[in-house]
Predict the 3D structure of the following.
Amino acid sequence: MGKAIGLLLVFGASLCALDGAAAQWKQIAKSPIGELWFDVASVKRNNGEAAFDYRIDYPKPQQVVESKAMYRSTVTRAKVRCVGRSIAIGPTIAFAGARASGKEVGRFPPSPEEARFQPVEPNSSDENLWQQVCQVARLIPQK
């Protein structure tokens, strides 16, 4: 009985911790290729940059080249420079299920080019991300 109560307390505490760090996904684009979301709660402003997470949900399963595993969504860490209108892509995690659910099927570092700040191209998904993240970042106090 003591073990069961202990496990319940640990489980309950972990749920509370997850709830405090819960993502607040906002959809910002949709096309036949997929849906683009960004996590409002993940936006962190620091020295003129804003770091954040974005998610892509795919309508059809995609395949990880190296392992042949299938995934339906990815979550990527990125940074934007609002004043400089540029974006740098960070690591990506692929998930078997939609909405970053299910088994994690891969972790992928960015290429050196993706990791460097690049100009945001007009009318692109990067521009959608840049606009939304910079709008949220203006409301966050500078560190």
In short: The chain has a mean pLDDT of 86. The domain at 22-137 is CATH 2.40.128.710 (Lipocalin). The two ends are 48 Å apart (CA to CA).
